[in-house]
């Protein structure tokens, strides 16, 4: 799989030099003075206000809070999906703000596994193609990713739905495809990944609002 990045084709199997350096990596994630502001008309919304924490290798943590408290914003910063207004995010002690387009794409593909709370399925692709795509980006051959995709779909009871597109699946099947299959796919690739980020919606029974548990696990 070749990707057009920065004006040329490069494969995401090429490890960027800054990730080849031998560094002390007790901290898989380190966040320093993280601030994120959004301009909404004439108002400024502070989604994150000087967040500081670190996650050591092997730790499993949950970040909990009411809807709108900034959990998804925080994980977007950690996962390299968005940039902070101020502050730094380090993955394996590499400042991701310093990464170029290829290095950032490589980081997302090879170091971080995402499982979102929404389905995020590609509507024109089949269930099998949706499952196989991240494995192809991670360097697997088309045949190997297809075989593993069929195995994973069969494992969760979707073996007879491999050629169905998302709109042809029930809401429950789409949820299984998003959460369970992608979780299993991430685990299959976890020897290459340091961080798994999961957004899980969870109803707050004590409130009319919705709270969420967001979990981060380091390999």
| C-alpha geometry | globular
The ordered string of helix (H) and strand (E) elements is EEEEEHEEHEHHHEE
Report low-confidence residues grouped into runs of 5 or more: 1-6, 201-219
Separation, N- and C-terminal Cα atoms: 25 Å
SS strand fraction: 25-35%
Task: Report the strand count.
Answer: 10
* Spatial strand order of the main sheet: 4-3-6-7
Mean pLDDT across the residues is: 75
> What is the radius of gyration computed over CA atoms, rounded to a whole number of angstroms?
18 Å
The biggest beta sheet is recorded as: 4 strands, antiparallel
Category by helix and strand content:
alpha+beta
Assembly state (oligomeric): single chain
Helix content: 25-40%
**Tally of helical runs:** 5
What is this entry, summarized?
With 219 residues, the protein is of the alpha+beta class. Helices cover 28% and strands 33% of the residues.
Q: Helices, strands, pairings?
A:
Elements: E1 2-5, E2 8-11, E3 27-40, E4 43-56, E5 60-66, H1 71-78, E6 86-91, E7 94-95, H2 101-110, E8 112-115, H3 127-137, H4 142-155, H5 171-188, E9 195-203, E10 210-218
Parallel strand pairs: 8-9
Antiparallel strand pairs: 1-2, 3-4, 3-6, 5-10, 6-7, 9-10
What does this structure look like?
It is built from 5 helices and 10 strands. With 219 residues, it is α+β, with helices and mostly antiparallel strands. A hairpin with a 2-residue loop joins strand 6 and strand 7 (94-95). Residues 1-6 and 201-219 have low confidence and may be disordered.
Feature tags:
alpha+beta, four-stranded antiparallel beta sheet, disordered C terminus
């Amino acid at each position: 799989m070749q990707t057009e990045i920065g004006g040329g084709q490069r494969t995401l199997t090429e490890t960027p030099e800054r990730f080849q350096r031998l560094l002390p990596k007790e901290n898989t994630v380190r966040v320093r003075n993280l601030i994120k502001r959004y301009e909404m008309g004439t108002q400024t919304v502070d989604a994150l206000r000087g967040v500081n924490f670190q996650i050591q290798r092997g730790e499993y943590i949950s970040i909990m809070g009411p809807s709108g408290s900034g959990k998804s914003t925080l994980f977007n910063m950690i996962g390299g999906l968005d940039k902070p207004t101020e502050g730094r995010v380090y993955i394996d002690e590499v400042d991701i703000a310093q990464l170029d387009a290829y290095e950032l794409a490589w980081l997302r593909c090879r170091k971080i596994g995402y499982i979102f709370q929404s389905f995020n399925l590609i509507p024109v692709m089949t269930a099998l193609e949706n499952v196989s795509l991240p494995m192809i980006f991670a360097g697997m051959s088309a045949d190997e990713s297809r075989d593993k995709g069929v195995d994973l779909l069969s494992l969760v009871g979707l073996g007879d739905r491999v050629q169905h597109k998302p709109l042809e699946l029930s809401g429950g099947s789409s949820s299984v495809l998003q959460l369970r299959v992608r979780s299993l796919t991430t685990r299959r690739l976890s020897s290459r990944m340091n961080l798994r980020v999961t957004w899980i919606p969870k109803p707050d029974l004590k409130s009319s609002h919705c709270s969420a548990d967001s979990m981060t696990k380091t390999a």
